[in-house]
Amino acid sequence: MLPLAPAVVSGLMNLRGQIVTAVDLRRRLNLEAVAADVQPMNVVVRSEDGAVSLLVDEIGDVVEVEESSFETPPETLRGSVRTMILGVHKLDNRLMHVLDIEKACEMADVAESMPTRSHSA
Fold it and tell me: Are 97 and 85 in contact (CB under 8 A)?
């Protein structure tokens, strides 16, 4: 936890001498938390503001998709989550959501809409 940071910020990490913000993608997407014993994985991405670590549940295989399988975000996505999803690709028995990295890494809207953690002495 990082005092005075939005709840989606899980902390900071040192990546080859560079301090990188770690964003809990579950919190950012308003998903339920996983069990405390499950360790998230880091996916480091570059945004306009520099490197950011997105904490994810797991990293799967690389999937090649056809441009023709891309569709706009489903109507079931609401609120701020919808703004972070560029669209989806229809796969065999599932949808692969395409995340807008820039939107997912933006903290300005998070700071306004979510309470910050207080620092207790």
Answer: yes
Which pTM does this prediction carry?
Answer: 0.79
Indicate if the pLDDT at residue 120 is higher than 60.
Answer: no
Q: What is the sign, positive or negative, of the torsion defined by CA atoms of 105, 21, 31, 93?
A: positive
Tokens of 84: 């972070």
CATH classification number, 9-58+65-113, choose in 1.10.287, 2.40.50, 3.30.160, 2.60.40: 2.40.50
Place of tokens 């301090």: 19
Instruction: Compute the radius of gyration of the chain from its Cα atoms.
Output: 16
Helix (H, G, I), strand (E, B) or coil at 38: coil
Taking the CB of residue 8, how many other CB atoms lie within 10 A of it?
A: 21
pLDDT tens string 22-39: 999 999 999 998 888 989
Q: 84 phi and psi, to 5 degrees?
A: -90, -10
Task: Give the end-to-end CA distance of the chain in Å, rounded to a whole number.
Answer: 14
